[in-house]
Amino acid sequence: MIIKRILVVFTISILLLSTVTVVAASPKVEKDEVVYTTLQPNGAQQEMYVVNSFEVDETSDITDYGNYTMVKNLTDLSEMKKSDDEISFTASEDTFYYQGNLEGKPLPWEFDISYQLDGEKVTPEDMVGKDGHLKIEIETSINEDVNPIFVENYLLQIALTVDAEKYQEIVAEEGTIANAGKNKQITFTVMPDQEKNLVMEADVTDFELEAIEITGIPSSMSIESPDVDEMTEDFQSLTDATEEIDNGVGELKNGITDLNSGMNELKNGSNEYKNGIVELNNGSSDLINGSASINEALSSINTSLDQEMSMGDFSELQEGLAQVADGLREIEKGLTNLNDNYTKAYQTLDESMNDIPAYDITEEDIKNISGKLEEEQDREVVQKLAETFKASQQAKGTYDAAKEAFAAVSPTLKEVSGSQIEMAKSLETMASEIATASEEMNIQESMAELQEGLSSLSTNYQSFHGGLVEYTNGVGELSQAYQDFHQGVVGISDGTSELENGASELHEGTSELADSTSDLPDQMQEEIDEMINEYDKSDFDAESFVSDKNENVQSVQFVIKTEAITKQEQEEEEEEIQEEKGFWDKLLDLFR
């Protein structure tokens, strides 16, 4: 019974084990490639071979791919099999190396290296041992026929090592110069997806040059986004300041527009006033001549009264007084007309002057606005604005100072006009009384009163005539002076018109500046992100340079060297040439 149970359990165990599939873990294989290339001194490609390394965690049979002309085991003496582009071998635990030679496979980059000595282009071989000013140009370009993944993700480091005793005054604008023992090392860096023209210059004696070393490695460094909060705040302050400038210039433009509008009205009003004062001045001579005639007539009448008069004389006197009265009334009409024209012109001038805005803009305000503007042309516009504003305020101040004199003209004209009416009435009254006296034959009784009245009238009119002469002289001076003042007003008006145009252009410029800088912090962040994305290759996955069939490639590097330019190599080349002589050449050398 016990044996039967044991058999049952054993049978069940076998059945269970038969249902379990054992999965063996595949060996881990990781590959690296280092591409070694030699160039001629001028950059032309020569030999190329690749050292392939494999990291394995246990002995494994590996198949690799590449169009090699020859392969060589660099790790042990085990056999490697090659069939077309397929290479098979067994790699023991740890690292396995083998070399594969390539022929005719181009690099992802092309190099053109040229040499100048004292400004003349020469071949490297012809420069050995010579002195002069050396210039080496290394031009890198992208080879479009090769997988672009390398130029897009790899940076190049180009190093020249020179003897510090032979190379003096070294200049390499895009390179760094460092001491390396008794040598100097000049290093250039070419970022991914870029083409460069690199230049090194120096004063050289006994020219020789070691191999130029070029390394191509993935730009796999991770670039963290910098903390730009403080910088962003500064840019935001700049944006806010630019907007304030735009608003300030906008207000300035509106103020200048108001100023220009007021100056145009002032110019129009000033022109009307000028025409009125000129008309008034032109009428002064007629006014003076008429007044002089009246003055002479009154003097003549007054003189005539001292003599005996007949009835005919009284009739002539009555008629003369009536004519003088009519003349005075005509003068009064002319004065009234002049006063009306002057009043209209003065009111227009006064309104225009009062329309000039009296903004409280200080020199410091102008300096603050000018200091925030970058363009010299904009600062000149602001300076013109300030000068024009100052001139308009001076004109307004001059007018305010002379306002009393302007205002006094109209009342004076009214007063003079009223005096003319009163005198005319007095003369008309005299003429009437003379007529009455003549009719009543009461001449003797009225003669004394008439003579006394005319004498007083003549004396008063002489004083009036003298004041009228002084008044018209003042009008003439005012007319002459106002011509200059009006020209100044016209000049200011023209200046404010030009200024308004300049302020409009200035405001357009500041508005455009404000618009372009309104999102400056965001633009800056976008530029930083774009630049980081351009150079951050931390997500780069390596691909085989040799064959796209290769997998698990961890890294690919390029080690590129030019041939050294030395006297020793030149001698070896000459010896090689000599060794290549034929039998007859060697035979002839025996007799030379």
UniProtKB/TrEMBL annotation:
Keywords: Signal. InterPro entries: xxxLxxG_rpt (IPR023908). Residues 1-24 form the signal peptide. Gene3D superfamilies: Methyl-accepting chemotaxis protein. It comes from the Bacteria. NCBIfam families: xxxLxxG_by_4. This is X-X-X-Leu-X-X-Gly heptad repeat-containing protein.
